[in-house]
TrEMBL record:
<feature type="transmembrane region" description="Helical">
    <location>
        <begin position="47"/>
        <end position="68"/>
    </location>
</feature>
<dbReference type="InterPro" id="IPR036291">
    <property type="entry name" value="NAD(P)-bd_dom_sf"/>
</dbReference>
<protein>
    <submittedName>
        <fullName>PglF protein</fullName>
        <ecNumber>4.2.1.135</ecNumber>
    </submittedName>
</protein>
<keyword id="KW-0812">Transmembrane</keyword>
<dbReference type="InterPro" id="IPR051203">
    <property type="entry name" value="Polysaccharide_Synthase-Rel"/>
</dbReference>
<comment type="similarity">
    <text>Belongs to the polysaccharide synthase family.</text>
</comment>
<keyword id="KW-0472">Membrane</keyword>
<keyword id="KW-0456">Lyase</keyword>
<keyword id="KW-1133">Transmembrane helix</keyword>
<dbReference type="GO" id="GO:0016829">
    <property type="term" value="F:lyase activity"/>
</dbReference>
<dbReference type="InterPro" id="IPR003869">
    <property type="entry name" value="Polysac_CapD-like"/>
</dbReference>
<feature type="domain" description="Polysaccharide biosynthesis protein CapD-like">
    <location>
        <begin position="286"/>
        <end position="578"/>
    </location>
</feature>
<feature type="transmembrane region" description="Helical">
    <location>
        <begin position="88"/>
        <end position="106"/>
    </location>
</feature>
<feature type="transmembrane region" description="Helical">
    <location>
        <begin position="20"/>
        <end position="41"/>
    </location>
</feature>
<dbReference type="Pfam" id="PF02719">
    <property type="entry name" value="Polysacc_synt_2"/>
</dbReference>
């Protein structure tokens, strides 16, 4: 039989069968111990004695005491098991058997003989069990079926953890690690304790798969820092207190509590049902561009709840489109809605035009855009082409096909933009304002909805903070005074649909987002919501530090939702309207001509110059100064 097969057979033994094996060992050990001690017995006074009754009595007594003390259900690598074996051998079993039955066998013994037989019995049981343990460990070491575990922490928790895991047939505990030098080079729960410097050597020597952190007194961020170093060695890291995590598939980061986005809003969540909205989309053919994005996918969900006749999902990302189509497919079938995924870019004029005409689209919700400020700032051509040309192509295709409504999802960064992303969204707004101004009566209604950051979206600060917290920090913030408007994804989607239903043409709808939120305070809330403390001048022993990295190119301290702050109320209390003048037709046409010519030439400097000359607020300088990274402690020291 191969070692792997033998190891599997041993692990396949039921607890009852293993108990029978151990009981047999205990029963046989007593008479064998008696026989081993006979050479030291004084000369017999009678030569014709029979040893069988005495040896049988030893076996029966040892077997009985083994059952009473439940030795067959204990293993030698448990401290309790070793003490029970010692108790049975030295005190109970041999003393009782030899003291009562030796006279019956005609043996003359001394008290020392009783002790010697007990010692022999204990030695035999211990050696047999230790031999079995060594054999099983050797077989498991050559078997790839069990997870090999290293326990970090040899204190009380580590010892209890080792004893618990050693009974698990799927886990082999190899050794223990501890920073405490007094515990190193000793044996705890039958395992050798090594210093942390030996981890890499132990991993290579024993092919360790997993490390269990048994240090509940160490703060979670410090455990996370240790975990990062262990993960770098290719190890899976798990942590006490949950034994289900230790023997299952739970990971260390799962211990962090999920953050509730609403905990970060300085207001109650908008909870207005879209009265009158359903009838705008019910029974209609609706197309959502950027359908796989954070806002686009939420628009798809909420449009679907309005029971349209057909929902067209368009996205350039195959994975994103597959994901949202898979999520909504079953719901659409049950609701009798025809769901049509369209893979491609809004910059592909023929694709957009065909998708609109073939499906008879009546409403377009244009959410397709590159929205990450820093990425667009370093990919100027892609950002401008997608956000400006893509909007221009989609809007013109909608107009030419006689689409009833075209609603642009815009951004507060479009107001006096300092970033290329904001400038691209402002140009998209100007294109729609121009089309709305020149629309024929009964033609396509063009409108846009402007709002700020969305909690929980891809690239949002909250997921970024969560990831940094999982890694043990630090949490990075661009500036101590930077603030932003926030709302949740569901309320943003709900209000975009409501504004789209209210549009008459040419409106710039602005959503009520409450008071702006300080990003530094948001970072602090994120840390505290995860159960940690902030490390700063007031609390130098805190868990996670906040580091201020300085504003990057295109970023502003404060965002605005309108140019003049004068907003017109609408029928919805959370939606206002900014009646903004567009750019003169000829000026806008010249701006677009120059912009697309510079895009064709790939002249980044010229592109920035065109944006600076044509858009209020866009910086003239080629690069903006950034601050050196500061920690929260340094910021407080300068204040």
């Amino acid at each position: 039989m191969k070692s792997d097969d033998l190891a599997r057979w041993i692990r396949s033994l039921s607890r009852g069968r293993k108990a029978v094996i151990f009981w047999t060992i205990d029963t046989v050990a007593a008479p064998l111990g008696g026989l081993a001690m006979l050479p030291i017995l004084p000369l017999y006074k009678s030569l014709g004695i029979s040893l069988f009754p005495w040896l049988a009595a030893l076996a029966v007594s040892a077997g009985f005491l083994s059952l009473v003390l439940r030795l067959p259900w204990l293993s030698l690598f448990e401290h309790h098991a070793a003490s029970q074996v010692r108790r049975a051998a030295m005190v109970g079993g041999v003393a009782l058997a030899s003291g009562l039955v030796a006279p019956l066998a005609g043996l003359v013994v001394t008290p020392l003989f009783h002790i010697a037989v007990g010692a022999a019995m204990f030695t035999l049981i211990s050696l047999v069990r230790a031999g079995l343990l060594r054999t099983v460990k050797t077989l498991n070491a050559h078997s790839g079926d069990r997870a090999r575990v290293l326990i970090y922490g040899a204190g009380t928790t580590g010892r209890q953890l080792a004893q618990a895991l050693q009974t698990d047939p799927e886990i082999e505990v190899v050794a223990m690690i501890d920073d405490n030098t007094t515990l190193q080079k000793v044996t705890v729960a039958g395992l050798s304790v090594y210093p942390p410097a030996r981890i890499a050597d132990l991993v290579n020597r024993y092919s360790i798969d997993r490390v269990c952190l048994a240090m509940p007194s160490v703060s979670p961020p410090k455990q996370a820092q240790m975990a990062r170093r262990l993960v770098a060695l290719g190890l899976e890291v798990q942590s006490v207190p949950s034994f289900s995590q230790l023997v299952g598939e739970g990971r260390l980061e799962d211990r962090l509590r999920p953050l509730d986005p609403m905990a970060f809003l300085a207001r109650d969540e908008i909870d207005h049902s879209p009265d009158g909205t359903e009838e705008t989309y019910e029974g209609r053919v609706v197309m959502v561009t950027g359908a796989g994005g954070s806002i686009g996918s939420e628009l798809c969900r909420q449009v679907l709840s309005c029971r349209p006749a057909k929902l067209i999902l368009m996205d350039v990302s195959e994975f994103a489109l597959f994901t949202i189509a898979g999520e909504l497919g079953g719901i659409a079938r049950r609701a009798g809605v025809d769901l049509v995924p369209v893979l491609g870019s809004v910059c592909d004029a023929r694709l957009v035009s065909r998708a609109i005409k073939r499906n008879g689209v009546q409403i377009v919700m244009h959410a397709a855009a590159y929205k990450h400020v820093h990425l667009v700032e370093t990919n100027v051509e892609a950002g401008l082409w997608n956000n400006v040309q893509g909007t221009r192509i989609a809007a013109r295709a909608a107009r030419d096909a006689g689409v009833e409504r075209f609603i642009l999802v815009s951004s507060d960064k479009a107001v006096r933009p300092r970033s290329v992303m904001g400038a691209s969204k402002r140009l998209a707004e100007l294109i729609l304002l121009d089309l709305a101004a020149r629309a024929q009566p009964g033609g396509t209604i063009f409108a846009m909805v402007r709002f700020g950051n969305v909690l929980g979206s891809s690239g949002s600060v909250v997921p970024l903070f969560q990831d940094q917290i999982r890694r043990g920090g630090p949490v990075t913030v661009t500036h101590s005074q930077v603030c932003r408007y926030f709302m949740t994804i569901p309320e943003a989607g709900r209000l975009v649909l409501t504004a789209g239903a209210m549009a008459l043409g040419g409106e710039v709808f602005v959503l009520d987002m409450g008071r702006p939120v300080m990003i530094a305070q948001l970072a602090r809330q994120s840390i505290e919501a995860a159960g940690y403390t902030v490390r700063d001048r007031a609390n130098p022993e805190g868990d996670i530090e906040i580091v201020f990295t300085g504003l990057r190119r295109g970023e502003k301290l404060f965002e605005e939702l309108s140019y003049d702050g004068n907003l017109i109320a609408t029928a919805h209390p959370k939606i206002s309207c900014a009646r903004e003048d567009g750019m003169p037709e000829l000026q806008l046409a010249a701006l677009q001509r120059d912009l697309f010519a510079a895009l064709d030439e790939g002249d980044i400097g010229q592109l920035r110059s065109i944006l600076a000359a044509g858009l209020e607020g866009f910086p003239q300088e080629a690069a903006e100064a950034t601050r050196p990274p500061l920690t929260a402690i340094e910021v407080e020291g300068r204040a």
